[in-house]
Specification:
The structure is a homodimer of 225-residue chains. Chain A is an all-alpha fold. Chain A has helices spanning 23-47, 50-57, 61-67, 71-97, 100-113, 115-127, 136-159, 169-189, 196-208. Chain A binds a DNA duplex (18 and 18 nucleotides) through residues 24-25, 28, 49-51, 59-63, 65-67, 69-71.
Chain lengths: 225, 225
DNA sequence: GTCTATATACTGATAGAC
DNA sequence: GTCTATCAGTATATAGAC
């Protein structure tokens, strides 16, 4: 279970403190973030307690607060790690296919293999709709940039005739993100009946494809379902 | 703000207790449910406190617990009311159009006019993904029946040639619900930029329509955007 | 039916020893 | 850097007066 920290980047600035003695601290912080990810994923941010995180990370609650001076600092670190993971997956998928849309299938597969990340994202994005929530702005910005990213890409596809002519790029961008978000919720309620990667691919085929009914980006990944 | 109780049905069984003295109790319960809806919508179920609900309903916390013996009883009453409202809207929309799909547009409009209901649904459906959450089963059943409802309808439309031939009824049903759920989240983050009713109509046109590009159900409501 | 008062438990955060 | 001990605040729920 606490395996989320194995590929954590050094979030503490290693440049200013080259001393070897602090390497243990960085590992500690990573372990704490991994524990916090699990706790907040399972209980949400409001109900998730620092004591639970501390217990799971193997230190006292006061010890935890030495590394992260407040609960808000901790959740921000967790979100930074979560976002970095997502970006990493999308970038890796974009290396061969070069299509941001095909990367969504890879992201769905990645999420499906990491339920805790889905739980965290679903519960936290819902909690943070309250304007005074500590990470409200984080998610607001995230949606803004995500919609704009896809809108721009779909606009280019429309210019190339690769988008259904009756599909508005801005609306389609929003729909795409909304669909993926909602799908994660359904998946959490019934993981055996919902295959997110398959649904995403079908959705893209139906919604995006102009004339051709084949895979969206021409990416070399036709065999999976 | 506390205007959600004006069209509350009598959830307390008025048939068994015809006495006039208890009418005040029913009204009290309705007021409490309305207050709880607001509190849980704004703060979520976990963080929303009975004290807040009691204050808003104009009685003490102990007095509140006389009517609803526990927090779980209260949230169940709130959900029952919420579901009843949604069913009412869908049924009313189905009376003239007779198309469940067109009713979704009406539902989106209704939700847009009642932000508290959207906040409640979004935050609670996310919270309740945890299997041990008090209302987990409620939402699990809700998704099951909703998917089955739309799947059956889309299957009939497919038989009539009214569904894109490359769209699978079961997948499309899931996608439709996922899209609407995700859209509500985005709307909560940016209410001025997102028009749920418009997006739902566009989505239906693109995803469902077989050949005709016109409105899905032929309902007499072409002028809105 | 509603109240005050309280029991019991847990929260995030702090102080200071080591 | 980690600990124990403790803070002040808040939570749900109960007991008993009126």
């Amino acid at each position: 279970m606490p395996s989320g920290a194995r590929n954590l980047p050094a979030m503490t600035s290693t440049a200013t403190r080259p001393r070897g003695e602090y390497a243990k601290t960085a590992a500690r912080r990573d372990a704490i973030v991994a524990a916090a990810l699990e706790v907040f994923a399972a209980s949400g941010y409001a109900k998730g307690s620092l004591r639970d995180v501390a217990d799971r990370a193997g230190l006292s609650q006061a010890g935890l607060l030495h590394h992260f001076p407040s609960k808000v600092h901790l959740i921000e670190a967790v979100l930074a790690w979560h976002d970095e993971q997502s970006v990493r997956v999308v970038r890796a998928a974009g290396r061969d296919g070069a299509d941001p849309l095909a990367a969504l299938v890879a992201l769905a597969e990645h999420n499906q293999a990491n339920p805790a990340m889905v739980e965290l994202y679903v519960s936290l994005s819902a909690e943070a709709t309250s304007p005074d929530h500590p990470v409200h702005e984080h998610f607001r910005r995230r949606y803004d940039t995500a919609v704009e990213l896809f809108r721009a890409h779909l606009g280019r596809q429309a210019d190339s005739g690769l988008l259904r002519p009756d599909a508005d790029p801005a609306s389609t961008a929003r729909s795409l993100i909304a669909f993926m978000d909602g799908l994660q919720v359904q998946w959490l309620y019934d993981r055996s009946s919902v295959d997110m990667a398959v649904e995403v691919r079908r959705f893209l085929d139906v919604l995006i494809a102009a004339r051709a009914v084949g895979p969206v980006g021409g990416s070399p990944e036709p065999a999976d379902d």
